């Protein structure tokens, strides 16, 4: 029972992380009227928030799949 509750919390927190890093990524790429300010200073030319978005998506997918199993 505790494992299922922990997976729910992890899923919720990772969903928040996806939303937050997705917002920051969209802002960095100028989707809200700005321009990419730190694209050249990140790893491989991408801002760090993109890597956070990928990691949060992976955590969300794995925790969601574990809940369904």
SSE blueprint and pairings:
Layout: H1 2-28, H2 48-68
Task: Give a brief description.
This protein has 69 residues and is mainly alpha-helical. 70% of the residues lie in helices and 0% in strands. It is elongated, with a radius of gyration of 15 Å.
What value does the Rg take, in angstroms?
Answer: 15 Å
- Give the ordered list of helices and strands: HH
* Averaged pLDDT: 86
Helix count equals 2
- When the domains are counted, the total is 1
Helix coverage percent: 55-70%
Through-space gap between termini? 14 Å
Backbone shape: elongated
- Structural class, from secondary structure content? mainly alpha
What does this structure look like?
By secondary structure, this protein is an all-alpha fold. It has one domain. The protein is 70% helix and 0% strand. It contains 2 helices and no strands. The chain has helices spanning 2-28, 48-68. It is elongated and about 45 Å long. The model has no long low-confidence stretch (mean pLDDT 86).
Observed structural traits:
single chain; 69 residues; mainly alpha; 2 helices; 0% strand
